[in-house]
Amino acid sequence: MVLTALRGALGFLSRLPVGRDADAWTAFAERPIAFPLAGYVIGALVGLPLLVPGPSATVGIVFAVGVYAVTGINHVDGVADLGDALAVHGDAAARREVMKDTTLGVGGALAVALVVAGLVAAGSAIAVLPARTALLAIAAEVGAKAGMASLVCVGSSPHDGLGAGFTTNANPWALAPVWLLALPAVFLAWPAVMPAVTALLAAAIMAVVVLRWARSNLGGVSGDVLGATNEIARVAALHAGVIAWTHW
Predict the structure, then answer these.
(1) Recorded E.C. number(s) (predicted)?
(2) Which one of 99, 126, 144, 225 is separated from 154 by 20 to 30 angstroms, measured CA to CA?
(3) Predicted confidence (pLDDT) at residue 153 exceeds the cutoff of 90
């Protein structure tokens, strides 16, 4: 069932042609451990452009394009909706209503621009470091997916929808296996473990920040919150990893 859950995770979290069916989706929704497992696969794929020689700025752009070629843009929609909600002066109900609006506001446009710029900048920074620094892409992806899983485990959805489909099937006890499965990403660039440790830690911190904000301002964890967590945590993890690699 774990392999079925992984297939369901890859079908939801990426554009990989793994097929989508009810059994895979159900197995995925019931097993948060599938999030970090999918992160290893996706991270390995999105990190490939970082190994291609070229001007750092070009590598950064190709890296960002590669990320969305593999993962799709569904989660970016979550960033846009969360950005629009951040710009709203009102209660949780008002913010949730704005997030349902298909019109992109200034807050959403700015949020998406910052995330994409963050990806390009991270890719550009990695391009001028040793080739094995590209392994940070795996650590960042695993961390981002573990961050999503963490929200699934400890959060609750304010309404029926995608978020509820995950949160109602998980509990805080699932956090331990999620992060235990994420830990091997630390040793990918051995002996340079500190950058990957820092990347995972940054992803975890961003997940906590988004969770606290979502609870206070949206009433809980929705599908948009999960998607935004993935994008924000990835960028934070990449930059934290690069900083750690540069200094340690």
Answers:
(1) 2.7.8.26
(2) 99
(3) yes
